[in-house]
């Protein structure tokens, strides 16, 4: 795929941002980065393999030396309910028209943004709620890699803070491995060259995000997410207006 120099600069900056959010919050790199990428070029199947490859790489190096901090019970419980919805979501991504998948991604990320702005937390209070969030999170993850906030809603209740981020990174690693394998089987271009080219800006964002994560532990995470939500909601509104506006005669 060809890009202008301006588009290449924008894409590089977005991948810095995506790496920063992923390392800083432990989730949300795709949810807060993908809408920006689709503003540059509305091709989910171009960007998703790159995001997935980066997530695989950085989740691996982040948890590789601290596997003892991973909550094994949470991994088993969550994956039991997420694997099948994950595969259904991947099938939908591969079969549905690009136009509908872009609208779907914007709608889901817009919903997340609203919940952050009004400081409304998606909470799980029962085993059945846990399972529903796992199923939806797995489906959204398969369709677009933006299921993390739903899965996190269960994670925050089920595991200690010390295991929170590392466990989520291991979970993302497993889910993304499934997605990339499905892409490979379906013959989707995995964009290895673009993944390597954009690895450096993503790594820069990742390192900045790790430093930010240490500072965020001392701050009110809800306020941080609120400001992120405001910015994300503004982007979604502009994106939907641009995408849904009828072409000029």
Search tags:
mainly alpha
What's a quick, concise take on this entry?
This protein has 249 residues and is mainly alpha-helical. It has helices spanning 5-25, 29-40, 44-63, 72-95, 98-117, 127-144, 148-158, 161-186, 192-197, 199-216, 221-244. The chain has one domain (8-244).
What features would you describe in this structure?
- Helices cover 80% and strands 0% of the residues.
- It has one domain.
- The protein is globular.
- The chain has helices spanning 5-25, 29-40, 44-63, 72-95, 98-117, 127-144, 148-158, 161-186, 192-197, 199-216, 221-244.
- 41% of the residues are buried.
- The chain starts with a helix and ends in a 5-residue tail after the last helix.
- The protein is mainly α.
């Amino acid at each position: 795929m060809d890009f202008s120099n301006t588009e290449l600069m924008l894409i590089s900056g977005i991948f810095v941002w995506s790496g920063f959010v992923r390392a800083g919050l432990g989730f949300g790199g795709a949810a807060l980065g993908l809408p920006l990428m689709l503003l540059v070029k509305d091709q989910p199947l171009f960007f998703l393999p790159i995001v997935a490859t980066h997530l695989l790489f950085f989740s691996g190096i982040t948890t590789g030396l601290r596997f003892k901090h991973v909550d094994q019970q949470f991994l088993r419980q969550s994956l039991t309910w997420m694997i099948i919805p994950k595969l259904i979501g991947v099938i939908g991504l591969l079969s549905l028209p690009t136009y509908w998948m872009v609208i779907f991604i914007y709608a889901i990320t817009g919903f997340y943004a609203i919940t952050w702005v009004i400081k409304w937390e998606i909470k799980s209070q029962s085993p059945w709620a846990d399972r529903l969030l796992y199923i939806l999170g797995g489906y959204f993850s398969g369709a677009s890699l933006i299921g993390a906030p739903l899965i996190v809603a269960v994670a925050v209740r089920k595991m200690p803070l010390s295991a929170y981020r590392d466990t989520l990174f291991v979970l993302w690693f497993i889910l993304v491995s499934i997605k990339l394998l499905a892409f490979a089987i379906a013959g989707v271009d995995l964009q290895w060259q673009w993944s390597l080219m954009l690895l450096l800006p993503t790594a820069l964002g990742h390192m900045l995000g790790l430093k930010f994560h240490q500072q965020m532990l001392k701050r009110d995470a809800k306020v941080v997410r609120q400001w992120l939500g405001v910015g994300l909601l503004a982007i979604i509104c502009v994106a939907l207006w641009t995408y849904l506006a009828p072409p000029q005669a």
